[in-house]
Amino acid sequence: MSRAADSHHQHVEPSVARMTEDALKQKATGTQEKRELVGDDEYLHKASSIVNKNALLENPLHGISLDRLEAMGRAFAREKGLQDYEEEFAKGAQVAQDPLAFESLTMLGEEDRNVLRREVTHKWHQPWQLYFLTICCSMSAAIQGMDESVTNGANLFWPQQFGIDTAARDNDQWILGFINGAPYLACALLGCWISAPLNRLLGRRGTIFVTALVSALTCIWMACVNSKWHLFAARFVLGLGIGPKSATVPVYAAETAPPIIRGALVMQWQVWTAFGIMVGTATSLMFFRVGDPSGVAITGLNWRLMLGSAALPAFFVMAQVYFCPESPRWLISRNRHREAFESLCRLRHTKLQAARDLFMINALLEEEASLVTGKSAIVELFSVPRNRRATVASGTVMFMQQFCGINVIAYYSATIFREAGFDDITALGATLGFGALNFVMAAPAVWTIDTFGRRNLLLTTFPMMSAFLLLAGLGFYAPEGMAYSPGEGPVPFTYSAEAFPLYVRDVGMSYATAVTWLFNFVVAFTFPRLLSAFTPTGAFGWYAAWNAAGTVLIFFLVPETKGLSLEELDAVFSIPTARHTAYNVAGLSYNFRKYILRQRLPPREPLYAWEANGKA
To answer: Which GO terms of the cellular component aspect does the record hold (predicted)?
Structure first.
């Protein structure tokens, strides 16, 4: 769940769900204990204004008696016009305090307990509308994926038609890269940053609909251009559709998914990007031999159909998105609590689960509203040490998502293969194999991202990508997607959506997506010239070196976030980077001695307090 601490807080009413004074004292005590265990000096100076702020957001119901919770639930239902569900909210308020302690709640019947047990034991058994929402909205990513791969095919034709000769003129290499990278330049400069106001005004579904419309119309526009700079203008406007979607879709998925499978559902953005790359390449092959019609003044019908075909997933999203429920969090921020409850009833199996989640979301929003400092959220991203570390970590993974070199293959593989002596059809066929592999190999991440972990996936796959890119440089074909799709593909968007505390998460996500699109543009813009100056082997070697560097950056700057509550993430990002680094470096020596030299060593002292209690 994510919203910035901005003007929407005026819509949240004062609360029947406000924490009691005893609960506040207990929270403060817990934060003091956390300071002593973690040992971060910054708690001495910022405990009340920064760390307590994030700790309160973890569970504002902690420490309240069950009788009081029942009364609060009933009062909440009456206050919000949900009095016909008063019993569900009385039970839901008690369950919300500790969702795993339901067995001891006397208000619950056996049927209620069975539902809550099954929620834990069968985590993938969710209402079909939740999966429909995730797949439908993540199809928005297919627009971006299709644009990348149809551009790959179109690059074989349109530059010659518009007088671009990259072999004869160095300046034309820069022009080709500038036009190909135009959407991602627009994303970084404008698209990502208009996400927050669009979401405030239109909601999640409305933002997705409008940006899908922009994408559809600009894809058709690209098919009708009559000059290279006309094509640049159309592609630049396309970025105004891609940018806000990339910041909104993962947040929408996070706000509607149950926590136990949130990582897997949020990463669907990258899964469907890979799907779009695969379909776009297949579409390029389908239109490859389409000739210009006689008697009609159309030149380059094949590449125009390629570029225009990327509108198809946008029309699909537009047709389906309003059949999905709106984000309950956005509805609550507009005081539309009954609609929020109806939305959750579609996304959960029972009204008890919907009441529990609605009550908790509302309590979190009220705490968020009460903790606003008045500073700009973008300022707090960099001025608050805890937030700054999350900003650095998410910026690192987003930067490396582009400089791992995967989009070089997505944009230019057909051109590279042609320059290596392959014919155009063979070049596109090899690219189709890459796209299919990229999509299929995203499947392991769905099952491992919430168990093996974000950091471990990155540290495992970056060295593999470095090796595969070296092979690609030597042989022009290697299965790099096998390493990218399980690791650097899905992790950055998922990591960025959860690393920031609740009150700055919207702006944090805008920043993170702006970083990835900025460097996407840099890759697209520079590669034609890089290819000429370094040769294909040298160009791929360049990105292989960046993957090796990425392994080091991830090791030092990106802590693990899997399976941790918001309060525990505060502890993670409140530890100074130097301390994290020292602990991880010492761990290299410890693991080498224990697992390679087989020495009998005592357990290491844990870095985090909860690790001492056996929680990974």
So the answer is: membrane
Asked if residue 494 and residue 347 are part of one domain, the reply reads no
Question: Tokens for 515?
Answer: 């970083």
pTM of the model: 0.75
Question: Do 320 and 362 reside in the same domain of the chain?
Answer: no
Could you tell me the residue range of the domain that residue 421 belongs to? 128-162+170-324+372-557
Specify the amino acid at residue 209: F
Quote the CA–CA distance of 25 and 43 in Å, as a whole number: 17
Kind plus residue range of the DSSP H or E element containing 136:
helix 128-138
Q: pLDDT digit string (tens) for 19-37?
A: 334 443 443 343 333 333 3
- Neighbouring CB atoms inside 10 A of 60's CB total 27
CA distance 175 to 330: 42
Is there a contact between 276 and 249 (Cβ–Cβ < 8 Å)?
no
Domain count, the chain: 3
The reply to whether 408 and 528 lie within a common domain is yes
Query: Cα 327–188–240 angle (5° rounding)?
Result: 60
pLDDT tens digits, residue range 579-589? 888 888 888 88
The 10 Å Cβ neighbour count of residue 511 is 23
Tokens of 192: 């990502």
Is the same domain home to 433 and 518? yes
**In the predicted model, is pLDDT for residue 486 greater than 80?**
no
Is residue 514 a part of any domain in this protein?
yes
Two structure tokens written together for 411: 């944009």
Same domain for 313 and 257? yes
Pair (341, 267) in one structural domain: no
CA separation for the pair 192, 588 (Å, rounded): 38
**Secondary structure, 3-state, 233-293:** HHHHHHHHHHHHHHHHHHHHHHHHCCHHHHHHHHCHHHHHHHHHHHHHHHHHHHHCCCCCC
My answer on whether 98 and 148 are in the same domain is no
Structure token digits, residue 602: 């005592």
* CB 275, CB 142: distance < 8 Å: yes
Asked if 405 contacts 546 with a C-beta cutoff of 8 angstroms, the reply is: yes
Q: Which two tokens stand for residue 47?
A: 């405990």
